[in-house]
Amino acid sequence: MLAPPAWLERLGFRTRYRLADLTYALGIATPKRTVAGTYRSYEPTNPHGDDPGLAALDRLPDDATVLDAGAHVGEHAIPLAVGTDRRIVAFEPNGESADRLARNAARNGLADRIDLRRAGLGDERGSLPFYRSTFSKCSAFDRDRATRWGARVDAVEEVPVFRLDDLVEGVTSDDAVDDDAADAAAADAVDASTVTPVGDPVPPPDAIKVDVEGHELAVLRGAETTIRAHRPLLVVEVHGTAGDDHADALAAWLAERGYDADERGDVWICRG
């Protein structure tokens, strides 16, 4: 099947995000049927409804802990939480997306069940400039990725970045977590009383889902001790193709740590 021309893809993205602005503004939440069950969302589309990574995560026990790196507006976090006792810790550095995740979670009665952290994850703790794109899903720590498909950078925000190894209980590093940065990141929350400070400890994960627009390897490197100690299921959306440097480096890193990757298109389901 031929790929659509670039101009048509750009038009599709532009239409989708303008429609999303409208549905959030009007408060129109519609049912989204997914492989993990049905939930309601203010998003106009359902791009992860048949996502193989979501299906793999939903096969975890109902009391599993899932760390969601790059949670966006909750397309994985919310259906995984609905009707279960799963602990979902969602990391999202894009302020607009985090606001929308909070609204979607509240619409499903999950405001106190999804642990929202307004921060990025990586292999060093500190802060980085984050490029918020006019196509919110393209927002990234890399300017080029934020301007794909005719998008432009709408704002540049300095956001806190943590290593998972500094947060997961039992593997926390000796360095103190920067609570000032954590508190600042939570200050703009829709309802700050429902948002956990980003530097608070998180439970050992049964799974880590990663969708971070090319930043995948940095997230995994920052979780190396956690991965070695707990051997969680890894579901990684890979922003690259077999044969390019990024995908090859990611495959090598996983193999060196005893993980086999079941590649389902750009979604890799990795078990150790």
In short:
By secondary structure, this protein is α/β, with parallel strands linked by helices. Helices cover 31% and strands 23% of the residues. The chain has helices at residues 6-26, 52-58, 77-81, 95-107, 143-146, 179-186, 216-221, 224-230, 245-256; strands at residues 30-34, 37-41, 65-69, 87-91, 114-117, 120-121, 126-133, 153-162, 207-210, 233-237, 260-264, 267-271.
Could you characterize the architecture of this molecule?
With 272 residues, this protein is α/β, with parallel strands linked by helices. It has one domain: 3-Layer(aba) Sandwich (Rossmann fold), CATH 3.40.50. The chain has nine helices and twelve strands. The protein has a seven-stranded mixed sheet, with helices on both faces. Helix 4 links the parallel strand 4 (87-91) and strand 5 (114-117). The two termini are 34 Å apart. It comes from Halorubrum rubrum. Residues 205-260 form the Methyltransferase FkbM domain. InterPro entries: FkbM_mtfrase, SAM-dependent_MTase, SAM-dependent_MTases_sf.
- Structural class, from helix and strand content? alpha/beta
The Cα radius of gyration reads 18 Å
Overall tally of structural domains: 1
Separation of the first and last Cα atoms: 34 Å
Query: What global shape is seen?
Result: globular
The top level CATH class name: Alpha Beta
**How confident overall, as mean pLDDT?**
88
The ordered H/E elements are HEEHEHEHEEEHEHEHHEHEE
The CATH level-2 architecture is identified as 3-Layer(aba) Sandwich
Outline the low-pLDDT stretches: 174-179, 181-194
Number of strands: 12
The oligomerization state is: single chain
CATH fold node name: Rossmann fold
Largest sheet: 7 strands, mixed
Sheet with most strands: strand arrangement: 5-4-3-9-10-12-11
> Residue share in helices?
25-40%
Strand content bin:
15-25%
* Helix count from the secondary structure assignment: 9
Per CATH, the superfamily is Vaccinia Virus protein VP39
Protein name: FkbM family methyltransferase
GO biological process, one term: methylation
Domain Methyltransferase FkbM: 205-260
Keywords: Methyltransferase, Transferase
